[in-house]
Amino acid sequence: MKNNLGQIIKFCALGGINTCLTYVIYLLLYHSTGNTFAMASGYGLTSLLALLLSDQWVFKLGAANFWLVFRFYVTYGATWLISIALTFIATNWWALQPELIPFFCLLITTPTNFCLSKFWVFKKSSKLIHP
User: Fold this and answer.
1) Helix %, strand %, coil % of the chain (to 5)
2) Number of Cβ atoms within 10 Å of the Cβ of 72
3) Residue 124: which pLDDT band, with cuts at 50, 70 and 90?
4) 3-state class of 50 per DSSP?
5) Rg (CA), the chain
6) Nearest in space to 56 (alpha carbons), one of 90, 89, 10
7) Are 22 and 42 in contact (CB under 8 A)?
8) ∠97-15-78 over CA atoms, to 5°?
């Protein structure tokens, strides 16, 4: 249980760091590249950091290979789609205040992302998994 709590804390800390770095990258680039490219650049660069630190620091698997990277980005894509769907639902069906929607999405996507990462992407047996 202690190991799980430590992983959850590290996972959330990494998410917070990535969110801040994405924002800084966005602020540095958006004037010269435009909003979409700046956000995509920030998100892309910090996703690489998340992959590296999740593998080495959070889950301590140390087994980055093609299938682990593939599962990592499938997980990121899935939680991104969940966030988009939740934003649509919160906006159109529940009339949630726009300022609260990102926090609502994080309440759902963070545990989802953690569970997928822990039990699918970075599971201990993934060192041995092949196609």
Assistant:
1) 85, 0, 15
2) 22
3) confident
4) helix
5) 16
6) 10
7) yes
8) 75
pTM of the model: 0.83
Can you list the alpha helix ranges (DSSP code H) found in 34-100?
Answer: 35-53, 66-92
- In tens, the pLDDT along 56-87 reads 999 988 877 999 999 999 999 999 899 899 98
- Which residues are CB-neighbours of 19 under 8 A, at least 6 positions away? none
Q: What is the number of other CB atoms lying within 10 angstroms of the CB of residue 118?
A: 17
Cα 76 → chain centroid: 5
In the block, residue with structure tokens 């994080």: 106
pLDDT tens digits for 9-61? 999 999 999 989 988 999 999 889 888 788 889 888 999 999 999 999 999 88
